[in-house]
Amino acid sequence: MGLLSKKDTKLITDPLADNNPITIQVLGICSALAITAELKASIVMSISVLFVLGVGNVVVSLMRNIIPSKIRIIVQLVVVAALVIIVDQVLKAFAYELSKTLSVFVGLIITNCIIMGRFEAFALGNGPWRSFLDGIGNAAGYGAILIIVGFFRELLGSGTLLGFKVLGDPIEKTGLYAIGYENNGFMLLSPMALIVVGVIIWVQRTRNKALIEDH
Amino acid sequence: MSNKTDSNLYTVLFAILMVVIVGGLLAYTASALRPKIDNNERIEKQQNILYAMGINENEGSSANFVATTQAPELFTKNVAEQLVLESKGGKVVNTMTREEFMKANNGKEPYLIDIKKQKSNAKSGSSRLLPLFVGNSKEGKKVYVAPIYGKGLWDAIWGYVALDENMVVQGAYFDHKGETPGLGANIKQRFFMDDFEGEHLLAENGDFKGITIAKGNADPKNEDKTDNEIDAIAGATITGDGVTAMIKSDLKLYKPYFDSLKSQKTN
Q1: What pTM does this model have?
Q2: Number of structural domains in chain A
């Protein structure tokens, strides 16, 4: 990439794999469990976090030299809460349908520890452009895991993807269901999200032994 | 960080300034967008009521409202009457027409009555206003749409149920504020809402029984319409129980009105 230096590119690619916020830093687990029962919700959440983390990181980075260190956590919290509320209000006024889909995520975005984590760990010590890239990279890494988990949970739990019945109709007994396949209702419950995340962590660490911590 | 930003005075001033700026920004956004948001919410209520009456643009398995631009016109056309029943102690003590209600409430339309507020009024012992929308369904049948309100797992759930004179459900629309996507949030999906069509609210002897969202009711295709049961959504027990509760508590209050309809007929 000509646009980005090697160091900048790493800011985006690192969180996608070897420094993934969910599987390596184990942040943002609560929302990963709560909303991954269907793929659509996972995608919407990923885009929302991408926006909030990208813009929020820039705002915090611009303010990094004037934020009093004693109250920096509260300042970060105010930045993210204000951003989310303004976006929510604008959507309610101009894209009402979309805002209804998002309403449930607003609270989850504010409490997402990845956002506060990146503000604290990166934006407070780096310039706006690098902070923006870091925000996008981490949100993408978070989104990638969310979408993988959402894909498996919706496919195995409801037999659908984005609402389309890809495996046939479970009530009419068509497609796979005709030969006795059953949806696994357990996939829809939160514990299975944790297990799917666990499997991803397992696969990732098997492929890259450097990620295994010594104790 | 420099020492300058560590002083107490600076910290306090920064906090005050931040609160003023952010507070002002949020207050400005909220008040500037308020009229637009109110209008969106008003149209949504009209779309919800029309949806329950069967006037919608459903295609395949997704639930679609009539277009927002058409909603006000279709609403005036299809909702012939908006009644407001005043309920106290399980009895209907007064029935107001739309005109009477609007006269007493500065021109406020009955469909904008806040059901949540009415519910808490009833809890504190005063009377409760029950809006009832009378109109014709898509098939030309006379239906009575009643709004209901309750709580799910995380937050509020509400809905509109269209009934015929015998309190048999003709259509239903449910919505929620913050139920879990893929689980409780599925109460607003076609497969759940459509199950209510034709379901009886009354038991065979004519008493009010409501509709229970039942797990393992051995009728997943919902062929038995008089069992007062709907198949539950897997993984959404508490949201389902909330739907059961709001149907039982809210629609029961309308029973005296439907009884009076019947006695008028037989007389």
Answers
A1: 0.73
A2: 1
